[in-house]
Amino acid sequence: MNYRSLSDLNAAARELATELPDSIDLIVGIPRSGLLAANLLCLYRNQPMTDVDGLCDGRIMRSGYRYDGHREFEHVDHVLVVDDSVDTGRQMQETKSRLDEHDFPFEVSYAALYVSTHGHRHVDYWSEVVSKPRFFEWNLLHHPMLKNSCVDIDGVLCRDPTPEENDDGKNYREFIRTVDPEIVPTERVGWLVTCRLERYREDTERWLDEHGVEYDELVMMDLPSKAAREEREDHAAFKAEVYERTGATLFVESSPGQATEIAERTGKPVFCYEANQLVSPGTVARVQTKGNEYLSRFASDPVAFSMRAGQHVLSKGTDVMSLLSHRYRDD
C-alpha cells in the first residue's frame, strides 16, 4: 500500500518545478485536486496560473488571486496543464479533448505530480511513479477503496468523548446522539469497526443515518459494560480480528498505539488518522533497530552524530518515535 501526504505533494511539486523547461509561461490546474498541484508549481516557479475554464475563456490568475477578465495570452508561448495524479488517464484525456477544440496560439503540455505505472503515458512530465494500491491524504475518505476498508468511528468520523462524557451511562449516550461529525465519507464504507458496546448500537446507527454515513456493516464490541471492556484491554486485538476476518485491504484507526498493534497483529497496513501516517507491518521493529543503530553511532562519535541528527530534524521535521510513545495509549 502506497500513501502520500500533503507534505509529500509539496515536495513532489518543488522537485518537478526545478525540472520543467524554462519555456513554460503559464500553469493550468485541472479541478479539483489538480488546482492544488498547479498552485504549488506556480508559487515555486513564480508564474501565473489559471484553471481549465480560465484557459478556455482567456483568464489568467494574477497576484492577489483576482482574475483579469480579458484575453492576455499575447506573451504566452507554452502552457502546462497539471493534475495531482494520473492512473487510467480518463480525466486527462477528457481535458485534452476539450482543449483540442480550441485553436490556441501556444504549445500545450501536460503533467502530473504522481503517475501510476501506466499513467505516465498520458503526460509529458511527472515527479514520481506511485504504484497501486495507493491513496492520498486529500482523498482518503472520499475514495472508492473505502468499500473494502475498515474505519474507526471515534477519533475519525467524530471526536473522542471527554472523560466526563465517557461514563458508560447518560452522558455517554448523549454524546453518541449529539456529537458533531468531523468528516463524512462520500464513498460507502465496507466496515465501521468501533470499540463502542453493542448496547449503544441503536444510538450509533441513528447518528450514522442522520449524518449520511453509508456503510455495509457496523461491528461493535459485545460486552456488558465499559468496565468489562477495560478489564480485557484488547481494543487493538478486537479490531485486528475484524480486519483479518473481513479481508479488508486497509484499516483507518484513530489511535497511534492501536494502529501500530493492529498492523503488527495482522501483517497489513493501517492508516493512523491522528498521526496522519501509514503504519506498515514491522514498524516498531524497524524503529527499534534504527534506535539501536543511532545509539551505537552516538557512542562512537557523540559530537558528529549530534550535528548530523540536528540537521536531519531541521530538514525533515518528523519524529519517527511518535508511534512508540503512543503504543499503549488506550483511547
- Computed over alpha carbons, the radius of gyration is 24 Å
Looking at the structure, the CATH topology of the largest domain is: Rossmann fold
CATH class of the largest domain: Alpha Beta
Give me the CATH architecture of the largest domain, please.
3-Layer(aba) Sandwich
Record field, number of beta strands: 13
Number of discrete domains:
2
The gross shape turns out to be globular
Main sheet properties: 6 strands, mixed
β-strand amount: 15-25%
SSE class: alpha/beta
Protein name: Orotate phosphoribosyltransferase
Keywords: Glycosyltransferase, Transferase
GO molecular function: glycosyltransferase activity
InterPro entries: HAD_sf, PRTase-like, PRTase_dom
Compact summary:
Keywords: Glycosyltransferase, Transferase. The protein is of the alpha/beta class and 331 residues long.
Task: Identify the notable features of this structure and list them briefly.
12 helices, alpha/beta, Rossmann fold, 331 residues, six-stranded mixed beta sheet
What would you note in describing this structure?
It is a single chain. The protein is α/β, with parallel strands linked by helices. It folds into two domains: 134 residues, Rossmann fold; 146 residues, 3-Layer(aba) Sandwich (Rossmann fold), CATH 3.40.50.1000. It contains twelve helices and 13 strands. It has a six-stranded mixed sheet with strand order 10-9-8-11-12-13, with helices on one face. It has a five-stranded parallel sheet with strand order 3-2-4-5-6, with helices on both faces. Strands 1-7 form a two-stranded parallel sheet. Strand 11, helix 9 and strand 12 form a beta-alpha-beta unit. Helix 10 crosses helix 11. The protein starts with a strand and ends in a 6-residue tail after the last helix.
